[in-house]
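Lab notebook page, bench 4
Experiment: in silico fold of construct C2
Operator: M.H.
Input chain length: 414 residues
Purpose: comparison with the prior construct
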Amino acid sequence: MVFEVLKGTKDYEPALQIVVNEVVSTLAKNFERHGFRPFETPTIEYFETLTNKYDEDSEIVQEIFKVMDRGGRTLGLRYDLTVPLCRYIAQKKQLKLPFRRYHVAKVFRDGPTKPGRSREFMQCDADVVGIEGVEVEAELLSMFYEGYKKLGINAILELNSNKILRGVFLQFGFEENDLQSLILSTDKLKKIGMDKVLAEMKSQHYDEERAKKALQLLCENDIKELREKAQNPLLVQGVEELSSLLALLDVLQVQYRVNLSMSRGLNIYTGNIWEAYDKDEHISSSIGSGGRYDNAIGNFIGDGRSFPAVGVSYGIVPVLECLKEKEHREGVTDILVIPLDESLVLQALSLAKLLREEEQNTEVFYGFKLKKAFDYADYLGIKQLAILGKKDIEGGVYTLRNLQSKEERKISFS
C-alpha cells in the first residue's frame, strides 16, 4: 500500500495543531466576550438541503461531496457554515431573535486543488441574525479587529458596499443584468489595473467610455466626493450606510481603509462588505471577510419571512501563515517529572498528580536518565523539569529546574 493523504487534505501534526487550538481558543473567548454563543451542526446534511436555491449544474453543487446512507438517502458533506445556519433557523419557527452564534468547524469541497484551495478546511464564522443597521456592523467589526490583535496580527480592514458598486454602474446607464459581469471585472482593479479591466469590459461588449467613468469614480476611494456625485438612489443609500459605519469605526478605533472597487458575493451580500489584511504583509491575500446578507436566509427558507443578517469569517489557513514566524512548541507539557530510578515511579506519579491539580500540564518521563530527559524536553519545548532522586525522596523534596534561567530549587512535597 501507498500510505499518503488524499490530495487537498493534510495531517495537522502536533506542532501545527497546537497553534490551531490556540488560535481557535483565542477567537472563541473573544466571541463569547461579545455575547456570541457556541454553535455546531452535523457534518452531513440532506443533499437537497445543501443544494437549495442552486441549479444542478452550478459550481457549488458540483463540488459537494455526495454520499448515500444504508437507507438509500442522498446526503452531502457541508461546504460552508451558512447553509446549516439557514437550515437551523428554518427549523426553529419560534427562535428568539437576535441570534448571535459563532461556529468553528471543518467544511468540504470536491473541487480543483491548488495552493490556498483545499478539499477539507476550517471555517471560523460569527453571525448576528435579526438586527438591521450599521450599529451592529460596527460592533461586529470591532470584535473582528480585536480578534486579530489578540492573535498578535497587525490587521487592517478594507471596506466597501455592494450597493455602491451596483449604484455607480446603474448611474452610468448600465442595466441590472450587466452588473454581475461588470463588478467581477471591477474587483480585479487592484491586481491588473484600469487598462486591463477596461479591455476586459470592452471584450464583453460594454460601452468603454461609460465604463471608464464608473471605474474612475470607484478608483478615487473618496467617500465624500462620491456623496457629492451620487444621484442613483441605490448609490446614495450605499454611500450613507458606509459613511455611517466608518464614523462608528473611527470612534471604536478600528484601523480601516476604503476600497470602492472591492466586491464580495453579489448574489449573497446586500450592503456593506469587508475583508481583513495583514499590514505586515506576511501574506498578500485577505485573512478574513464578511458583510451584510439580509436576503440570504429568507430566500433559503422561501416563506416570505425577513431575516436581516451580518457576519464575519476568519481565514484560519492565512492566519496560520501570518503566525509562521512566531515561536511554536512541539508539545503542550509545562513540567516534565523525571524519576531517576525505577523505584521512584510511584512518587513521580504522585507528584505529577499534585502538579496537575495546580493546573500544570504535566508528563512523567520513564527513561530514568537525565540526558535523555533533557533531549526530550528540548524537543517538546518544555521549560521546567521536576527531578526526583533517592536522596530527594528521603528529604521529602524534589528539584525543580528552569531550563531557561538554569535556576534550581528544592521544593517540599507538602
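Observations: The longest strand covers residues 99-108. The chain has two domains: 14-322, 335-412.
Next step: discuss at group meeting.
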